[in-house]
Amino acid sequence: MSPSLISLVCGLGAGVILAFLGIWRNFRTLREALAHTAPLEKLSVIIASRNEEAVIENTVRTLAAAAPDAEIIVVDASTDRTPEILSSLKREIPQLLVLEDPYRRGKPAALNHALKHAKGTIILFLDADARLDGEALQFYQALASHPSNPVIYADFAPYNQRRSFVVVLQELFFSMAKAFVFSGLFWRPVFMTCGLFVRREVLEQAGEFDPKTLVDDFDLSNRLAQRRIFAKFVRGPSCFIQYAPSFADLFAQFLRWYTGGIREMLDEIRHGKVSYMALMILLAWVIYLPWFALWIDLGLGAWVLTRYVVPGFVAALYTGVLLSYWLEGPKTREALLNTLAGPLLLHLVLQGAILVGFLRAFGKSATWYKVRREHA
User: Fold this and answer.
1) Residues 230 and 189: beta-carbon distance below 8 Å
2) Residues 229 and 281 grouped into a single domain
3) I need a labelling partner for 88 at 20 to 30 A (CA). Which of 58, 82, 244, 300 fits?
């Protein structure tokens, strides 16, 4: 058997093991979270809004119907019809508090402003397009009402009406993220600040969001980790959100995530936290290993890494990603499309976004990009 074939077979086996480890980790987290529930405590829902006329009305109405006792706070910095819509909703929904964003400096500053007005014991951060029904809200609220579950990150799924290839591709990406990233399989769990339930006392310990950050979720995750507080990603009822509707939107979203994330890690390194340097090097090897191997072999004048390492690495990575996706139960046609083209295309998009994000992370500009919404 050739070295390349041996490497490939070992990689396939490693990918299967990784996928099932991710599933096991999420199952364990769910079991741990369900072991601690409590009577529902007061909930404050916080939404930072900017030009959300396509989605804000249905989001607020859904929330008001699902949780009539919850406080709903919308901090708005819009120039479209969103203020008019919110003003009308405010007359109908007594628990809705609409605040004009006095800073207009992005989502983190808006969240800080909202937190000063929130009265709930539990804070739920949502994006303006997010939808949670009553069953899902009560499920996660009961978990977060227990002090043993200080931070709960809700499972999520897309509700885009147009099932374009880029939406289907993101299902592959987020299946991977759920198994390997949000689960905390390799590093401490990270999360997005949409569908995030946090106990108030935990937020008070962590302090305010950094108004300058491009990644409020990574910023909060870092501040919580300093206090040994980690989020639990719970595979329960879905918080429905919209995925990026086009490749341009997806790349711009990736660019914000990775520019902001790399800036945060560089800042931590400047403060002496060398573990972030190790993390950056590890991520670079995972994303760019085929290219590194090619350059090293060209320098050596012998095809060593490309024969013995790259086949196994690619097989492990793609098998782990695809298996975590298949186990989500996708539609047959979409699964076939993602299987044939998804891993390679996604890998290339990530390589491009992370490279550009790394270069931009050393600049001073901080551009916040909001994905376009479908009317829903």
Assistant:
1) yes
2) no
3) 244
Is the domain of 181 the same as that of 303? no
Burial bucket for residue 74 (CB in 10 Å: 0-12, 13-18, 19+): buried
User: In terms of residue numbers, what domain contains 114?
Assistant: 22-244
**What's the mean pLDDT in 7-13?**
94
How far apart, in Å, are the Cα atoms of 85 and each of 58, 63, 80, 234, 287?
10, 15, 10, 33, 44
φ, ψ of residue 287 in degrees (nearest 5) = -80, -40
Same domain for 110 and 188, yes or no, is yes
pLDDT above 70 covers a percentage of the chain that reads: 99
pLDDT value, residue 376: 83
Tokens 């989502």, located at residue? 107
111-125 average pLDDT score: 96
Which distant-in-sequence residues (6+ apart) come within 8 Å of 58 by Cβ? 131, 376
Is the separation of the CB atoms in 323 and 15 below 8 Å? yes
What pLDDT sits at residue 364?
73
By CB atoms closer than 10 A (0-12, 13-18, 19+), residue 172 is: buried
Bridge partners (DSSP) listed for residue 43: 122
> Is the CB of residue 122 less than 8 Å from the CB of residue 69?
no
